[in-house]
Amino acid sequence: MTELTKTQLKQQVVQAIEDQQRDLLDLCSKLIQINSENPPGDSTEITEFIKTYLEEAGLAVEIHESAPLQYNIISKYGSESGKKLIYCGHTDVVPVGNLDKWDFDPFSGEIKDGFLLGRGASDMKAGLGGLIFATTLMKKLNISLPGQVILAIVPDEETGGENGVPWVLNKGLVSGDGALIAEPSSKYNPTIGQKGSYWFKLDVYGEPGHGSLSPIIGGNAIVDMMRAIERIQTLFTLDFDMPDEMRELVETSKRYMREVETEREAFQPILEHISCNIGKIEGGTKANVVPESCSVEIDCRLPFGVSEDFVTQYITDELDKLGIDYKMERFGFRSEANYTSPQDPVCRAVVDNLQEISGHEAYGVMQWASSDARHFREHNIPVLQYGPATLSTIHGYNERVEVDKIVLATKVYGAAIIDFLYN
C-alpha cells in the first residue's frame, strides 16, 4: 500500500467519525445510562449491551466470565496474519456516592452545554465508546485491514482489576504488538509511563501495662510506631540515578505540569522521589492501657531507578536501628516504574495522529500513579493511555467530559488503527 492510499484511508475514517459524531455520542450516552458501579461489580447489563452493539455491526464476540457476574468481552476485526493492536477499556465505574451532591442524574448520559454528563463520562465510558465506535467503523466502511484490531473490554478496574486485564492476559485470550487503553488523559498528552507501586502493612508490638505507669512500664506500640513512621518517611528525601531516556521522560512530564496542567506545577518533585502515604492506622485498646500492638498500611510509589528490593532493604535497615519488635508484609498493588518508549510504533501512531488531527503540539507524559498499563508491559506489549476526560471530575461529583474531546479521541483511535496496522 502506498503512503497516499494510507493517507486517504485515514482521511476517510476521520471524516466518517466527524459525520457520524451524533451516533458516537449516542453510544457514549447509552453506556453511561447503564449502572455498572463497582462495587458491587455486576457487569451483566452493560456486557449484553456492548455484545449486541458489536454483533449488529457484524463483529464476532467472545464473552469470558472471570468471576461471578464479571464478564470480559473480546472482539476482533481484520487479518490474523498481520500486526495486532489491542484497544482496551473497562466497563465498571466507581459508586456515585451521595446523590444529593450531584447537580444532575449521574446515570442520565445527557449532553448539555458541550459536555457529556454522568458517572463514568471521563473514567472511562466516553473513551470506551470511542474505541468501540472506531473499531466497528472499520467493519462498516469495509476497510480490509492487513492486521487485526482487538477490543479487550474488561469488567474490573476500579477495585484492583484482578478479574480484568491481568486475567485476560494471563489466560492468553489476547496478545498484540501494541495496545492503547482509553483511560482518562490530558487532551494532547497521552500517558506513556508510570511510577511503580509498593504497598505494605507494618505491625509493631509492645508490652501492655497500666496507663498510669507509662512510660515507666510497658512497651508502647503506638509510640514505637510513631518512631517507625518517621524513619519510613525519609524515603522521600532519597535521591536516585535515572537512565537518560527515563530522565528525558521525567523532564518532559515536569514541563507538562508547568505549561499544561499548571495547577499541578507544585507536584513536579513527586516524579523523581519515593512518595509515602500513611493511609491507615490502628492501635491500642483504651486510653488507660499501654498498647501492645499498632498497625499501619502504607502506599509508596516508586520513581525510575528505584527497585522494590531497594525499598524493602532500606525500610528494614531503618527499623532494625530502632530496636523495635515489628513485622512487615507486602499487599495490594505491586510494580516497579514502567514505560513505553515514545518512539515505539504504537506511541507514534497515537501521538502523531493526535498532533496531525488537532493541529496542536502533542507528546507523551508519565503519571505518578499506577494503572492496567503495567500488566501489558509485564507481557511485553507496548502500551499507552489516551482517553477523553475532564480530569478534575474523575471519581467526584458532577463527572463530565467535553464533547469535542470525545470526537477528537475517536478520530485518533480510528487513524491510529490504519497507521499502526499498515506500517
Identify the strand order in the major beta sheet: 1-2-6-3-7-15
- Overall number of structural domains: 2
Looking at CATH, the homologous superfamily of the largest domain is Zn peptidases
Summarize the biggest pleated sheet: 6 strands, mixed
- Radius of gyration over C-alpha positions, nearest whole angstrom: 24 Å
Tally of contiguous helical segments:
11
The chain-level structural class is alpha/beta
Q: Would you identify the regions where 5 or more consecutive residues have pLDDT less than 50?
A: none
Fraction of helical residues: 25-40%
And the CATH topology of the largest domain? Aminopeptidase
Anisotropy-based shape: elongated
EC number: 3.5.1.18
Protein name: Probable succinyl-diaminopimelate desuccinylase
Catalytic activity: N-succinyl-(2S,6S)-2,6-diaminopimelate + H2O = (2S,6S)-2,6-diaminopimelate + succinate
Cofactor: Co(2+); Zn(2+)
Write the layout of secondary structure elements.
Blueprint: H1 3-19, H2 21-33, H3 44-56, E1 61-67, E2 70-78, E3 84-90, E4 111-112, E5 115-117, H4 121-140, E6 148-154, H5 165-170, E7 178-181, E8 191-194, E9 196-205, H6 221-232, H7 244-259, E10 275-283, E11 293-302, H8 308-322, E12 325-335, E13 338-339, H9 345-358, E14 365-367, H10 373-378, E15 383-385, E16 400-402, H11 403-422
Parallel strand pairs: 3-6, 3-7, 7-15, 8-14
Antiparallel strand pairs: 1-2, 2-6, 4-5, 5-16, 8-13, 9-11, 9-12, 10-11
Helix pairs in contact: 1-11, 2-4, 4-11, 6-8, 9-11
